[in-house]
Amino acid sequence: MRTVQMTLDDELIEQVDQVVKTIKTTRSAFTRDALRLALKQFQTLELEKKHRKGYEQFPVNNEEVQVWEDEQAWGDL
Predict the structure, then answer these.
(1) What does DSSP assign to residue 12?
(2) Has residue 26 been placed in a domain?
(3) Average pLDDT, the chain
(4) Tell me: the pLDDT tens digits for 44-70?
(5) How many domains does the structure of the chain reveal?
(6) Domain limits for position 15
(7) In a domain, 31, yes or no
(8) Which of 31, 42, 53, 68 sits a CA distance of 20 to 30 A from 9?
(9) pLDDT at residue 30 greater than cutoff 70
(10) Alpha-carbon span 49 to 42, nearest angstrom
């Protein structure tokens, strides 16, 4: 593990300190978890962009969807 020095707003540090006290952890552990979560969210957004771009380039046509709509069970109406 490496030590990294960061500059953060006082208000942000106060909020983090309140949370870490509540959940009984450290600033470092909390920050590591927050960064991991942010990286996962970033990766998810990037995948969504790729999927969106793929569907824009190759849109789904009605025939593809119709096959599966016919197979759906809608229950007793």
Answers:
(1) H
(2) yes
(3) 91
(4) 999 999 999 998 998 888 777 777 777
(5) 1
(6) 10-58
(7) yes
(8) 42
(9) yes
(10) 11
Any domain includes 41: yes
Residues in the chain: 77
**Token digits of residue 53:** 């771009």
pLDDT tens digits, one per residue of 7-18: 999 999 999 999
Q: Residue 14 in 3-state DSSP?
A: helix
Distance CA 41, CA 56 (A): 22
Nearest 5°: CA angle at 20, between 15 and 31? 80
CA distances from 4 to 28, 29, 31, 35, 58 (A): 10, 13, 11, 13, 44
Query: Is residue 70 domain-resident?
Result: no
Tokens (6 digits) for 48? 């969504």
